[in-house]
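note to self: dont lose this again. the chain is below, predicted strucutre after it. 173 aa total, dont forget to put it in the shared folder this time
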Amino acid sequence: MNSVLMIFIDGVGIGKKDYKFNPFFKNGFNTFTTLFGSLPSLDKKMLVGDNKYLFASDANLGVKGLPQSGTGQASLFCGVNVPKSTGRHFGPFPITSTVQLIKDEHLLTHYSKKNNGHCLANAYPKVFFNYLNSGKTRLGVTATCCRLNGFRFNKVSDLRQGNALTAEITNDR
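---
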């Protein structure tokens, strides 16, 4: 069985090779250098290394306006140009009309149906579970997919045991 680790960083652009302003160069993002031998930039928008790929995507998706997470993430994860089909960018939450698409076509949905071994690495704080228990359901695209498909949401206890990651990936907070 092949393993897939997908790290999606929302809202991070690929910029100039600028050590003063570009955080990838200014702060020395060693993970990219270790995995790909280089850092992403406008000169190197795609990096490839031993079955590993890093690439930029055009968040506008051919639609004018400020890209938003609700439509952008649904597009990336479901393989449908949601801003184009809805005529606008929307976020940070998914548009109501895309919830069924997210449930049925999200890549986590397909992967979980084909493989028994799947998980979401994110850990969620107590306030997230309080929100869910209140009956509210307005979540981001990935959390919506996971909730609709019965994925287990990791708790702070999973984080403390080393079995989950915070949104910051460093687990510092």
